[in-house]
């Protein structure tokens, strides 16, 4: 028999869908043609204008029934006579969400129950020459999950319905503290592959022996290929590898191309020189990297709307914001190939969780089998990406176990954890590491957070840490980030409203709901206790109003100050080899899956919040930071009434490059309520890949106080790093806090100027007095892409803000103390 070349073609045309049994929106036996494929029921019904937009107002509650209904998709495809006579034919499903029964020509060929698993189904005996009918019936994942839960047990969790723990489906679909309540996705993606296995493997024209298991091993010459580096540390050379399979006559039967790169990645957990604990840092090609980045959640409630262009826009924002790492969170999905391809291209390090989040997951046999297939498929799919540098077993499941006091003895490494009330330890400590070790050389980490060395997840001296004692937990002031630091802070955050245009979008024109405490506003914030927590941090730090534009402004400035402070203080802790006390900070979160108020630093419509820009400034290659702290001394140890208060200023710089940097430190102090200023300069050398302490002493212009009734002066300190040409490498202004105590000058005294550049696409800001928290905007629905926001401005240091789309329009300027209600 002659060889038959393997062929593969998508089955993505002619799909229709229906609501099984029918209802008000889709009648019984009514089949609706899909607009694109793969797809989701919600997207198609929206296209048909049969349901309201769930992103607007309270509409999400009117579409909950979709996730509890059964849906069916069908199509027809043709097979030629020679294809039907091939020795083998497979139907390949890249993803089915989640409980699906597949029929080909009326015969059941597959029952699927895991959204994260692809299926290759032999259909040689079912496929026929001519027209073939393919039908996919989707059961309700929500109802099915509750049925499975009845058969087993109800388990502990944070967020969502407890039945989700039994269902291998994106956990955020069950509702989270930033996303909508249950909106299960019904989708499918299929292709047909017809092949006849015959012949030998041909690699680059060289005959390579093939093992019985079908593996061919070969070596590449050393020194021929450049190494891949994360952004900011080198290039990202990507090499295309093509593998061909040929028969004995060298007729090519099949081929596969894949992009790869070469790099060495390690997670280093060494003892520290002069602190308790161990490092937790990433070393790429022998270079230790401070990882400044973000957490990533699914970027849309309807995943099939995500395109490579949308992924690129998000990831380009990350890189433009001077970030070098993204963590794919365990309550979402293993992302599409395009996501990881773009990370490879842009030099973004990827921390990849397995898809378990905030729960006491089961470990019965059928569940474990499904998880094993899921893990093997996804490790194989992701292992060639140079960007993927760590695989973590779950998100916060050990914290759930600690919280509910489940069976969790960290010193026990040998028990059968399936017999405990925390059976998922078997998954995280047996199954997943075994799969990772067998199929890749990527570092495996049991959880995020996870300390190791017998320590609980809250230990700040080992492993990674989710630091939620700002906002959640003990609700510490954000000024305490320095004492809340961990070795690698893989989650922390603060909420802030999105752009006012995004707010107006979800209001849908309902002006009566356009105030912060309205029912619609509350519906577009899913965090427990968010009003109390927002107001706690607002009232502790700002004089603010509840008029919506002002409320948006103040929450945004609060978020910007909070997050910038964290990156600034934790980057200071990166002090060189053996003293990497904090090796990374990943903000929760960069993105949203729908229009909402959340912890995101960029909203659903890719509009950066001011916090995005303050983080961007703190992650520049060269930065300068300052703290001011009051020191109270008692000359008479028996007296509490006699004391002296001194204000101590500390200044440091950071350098993420691998070479030392000579620069000038310029420090200028201003009294907000007088013309007094003080300036001094110092030649400095910033150590490579490290922070460098630059100054510690009295705050200029601030007298010592002996009475609490003595009001301190409002001294603003501006620090700049200048290169030899006078170019500003980094700048930061330190203001006294809380800001609510400051009496701001009359706006007329400030001398603030906002001059539009000659091309209409820049704004030059200058001032006669220090100004805090400048946010720029324009009137109307047409937005502007701003080059910077949340700007602190001082006399003698004008700043030019680049724009895209300003078109010479007049600029509105908000800032603290601007007199706006």
Automatic annotation (TrEMBL):
The keyword Translocase does not apply. Coiled coil: none annotated. Signal peptide: none annotated. Pathway: Glycan metabolism; N-glycan degradation. The keyword Hydrolase applies. Residues 15-180 form the Beta-mannosidase-like galactose-binding domain. Transmembrane segments: none annotated. Residues 648-741 form the Mannosidase Ig/CBM-like domain. Keywords: Glycosidase, Hydrolase. This is Beta-mannosidase. It comes from Somion occarium. The lineage of its organism: Eukaryota, Fungi, Dikarya, Basidiomycota, Agaricomycotina.
């Amino acid at each position: 028999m002659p060889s038959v070349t393997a062929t593969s073609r998508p089955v993505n045309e002619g799909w229709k869908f229906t609501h099984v049994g029918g209802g008000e929106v889709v009648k019984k036996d009514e089949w609706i043609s899909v607009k694109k494929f793969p797809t989701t029921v919600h997207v198609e019904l929206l296209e048909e204008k049969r349901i309201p937009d769930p992103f607007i107002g309270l509409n999400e509650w009117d579409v909950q029934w979709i996730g509890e209904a059964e849906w069916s998709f069908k199509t027809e495809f043709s097979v030629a006579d020679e294809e039907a006579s091939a020795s083998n034919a497979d139907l390949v499903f890249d993803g089915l969400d989640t409980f699906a029964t597949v029929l080909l020509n009326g015969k059941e060929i597959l029952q699927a129950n895991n959204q994260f698993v692809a299926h290759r189904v032999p259909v040689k005996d079912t496929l026929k020459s001519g027209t073939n009918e393919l039908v996919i019936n989707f059961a309700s994942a929500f109802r099915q999950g509750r049925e499975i839960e009845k058969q087993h047990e109800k388990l502990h969790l944070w967020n969502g319905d407890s039945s989700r723990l039994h269902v291998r489906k994106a956990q955020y679909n069950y509702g989270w503290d930033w996303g909508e309540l249950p909106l299960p996705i019904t989708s499918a993606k299929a292709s047909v592959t017809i092949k006849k296995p015959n012949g030998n493997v041909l690699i680059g024209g060289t005959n390579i022996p093939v093992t019985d298991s079908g593996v061919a091993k070969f070596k590449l010459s050393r020194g021929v290929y450049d190494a891949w580096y994360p952004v900011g540390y080198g290039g990202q050379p990507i090499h295309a590898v093509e593998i061909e399979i040929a028969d004995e006559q060298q007729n090519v039967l099949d081929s596969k191309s894949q992009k790869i790169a070469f790099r060495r990645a390690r997670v280093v957990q060494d003892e520290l020189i002069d602190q308790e604990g161990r490092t937790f840092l990433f070393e790429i090609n022998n270079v230790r990297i401070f990882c400044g980045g973000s957490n990533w959640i699914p970027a849309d409630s309807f995943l099939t709307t995500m395109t490579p262009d949308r992924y690129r826009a998000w990831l380009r924002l990350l890189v433009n914001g001077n970030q070098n790492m993204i963590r794919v969170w365990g309550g979402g999905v293993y992302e599409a190939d395009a996501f990881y391809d773009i990370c490879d291209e842009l030099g973004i390090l990827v921390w990849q969780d397995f898809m378990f989040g905030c729960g006491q997951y089961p470990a019965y046999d059928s569940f474990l089998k499904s998880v094993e297939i899921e893990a093997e498929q996804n490790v194989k799919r992701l292992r060639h990406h140079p960007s993927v540098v760590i695989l973590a077993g779950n998100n916060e499941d050990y914290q759930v176990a600690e919280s509910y006091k489940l069976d969790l003895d960290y010193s026990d490494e040998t028990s059968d954890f399936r017999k405990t009330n925390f059976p998922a330890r078997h998954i995280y400590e047996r199954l997943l590491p075994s799969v990772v070790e067998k199929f890749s050389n990527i570092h495996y980490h049991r959880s995020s957070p996870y300390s190791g060395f017998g320590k609980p997840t809250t230990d700040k001296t080992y492993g990674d840490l989710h630091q939620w004692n700002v906002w959640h937990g003990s609700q510490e002031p954000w000024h305490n980030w320095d004492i809340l630091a961990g070795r690698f802070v893989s989650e922390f955050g603060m909420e802030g409203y999105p752009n006012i245009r995004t707010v107006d979008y979800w209001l849908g024109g309902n002006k009566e709901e356009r105030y912060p405490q309205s029912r619609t506003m509350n519906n577009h914030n899913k965090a427990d206790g968010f009003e109390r927590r927002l107001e706690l941090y607002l009232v502790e730090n700002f004089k603010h109003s509840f008029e919506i534009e002002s409320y948006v402004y103040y929450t945004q400035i609060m978020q910007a100050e909070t997050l910038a402070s964290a990156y600034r203080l934790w980057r200071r802790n990166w002090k060189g080899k053996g003293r990497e006390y904090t090796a990374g900070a990943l903000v929760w979160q960069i993105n949203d899956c729908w229009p909402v108020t959340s912890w995101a630093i960029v909203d659903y419509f890719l509009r950066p919040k001011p916090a995005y820009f303050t983080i961007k400034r703190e992650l520049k290659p060269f930065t300068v930071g300052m703290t001011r702290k009051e020191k109270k001394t008692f000359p008479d140890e028996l007296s509490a009434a006699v004391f002296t208060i001194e204000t101590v200023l500390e200044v440091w710089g950071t350098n993420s490059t691998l070479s030392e940097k000579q620069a000038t430190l310029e420090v200028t102090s201003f009294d907000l309520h007088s013309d007094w200023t003080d300036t001094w300069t110092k030649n400095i050398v910033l150590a490579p890949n490290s922070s460098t302490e630059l100054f510690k002493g009295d705050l200029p212009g601030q007298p010592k106080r002996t009475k609490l009734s003595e009001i301190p002066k409002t001294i603003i300190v501006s620090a700049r790093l200048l290169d030899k040409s006078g170019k500003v490498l980094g700048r930061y202004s330190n203001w006294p806090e809380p800001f609510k105590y400051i009496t701001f000058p009359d706006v007329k005294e400030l001398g603030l100027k906002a001059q539009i550049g000659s091309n209409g696409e820049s704004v030059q800001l200058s001032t006669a007095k220090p100004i805090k928290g400048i946010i720029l905007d324009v009137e109307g629905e047409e937005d502007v892409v701003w080059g910077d926001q949340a700007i602190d401005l001082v006399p003698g240091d004008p700043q030019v803000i680049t724009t895209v789309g300003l078109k010479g329009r007049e600029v509105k300027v908000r800032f603290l103390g601007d007199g706006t209600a």
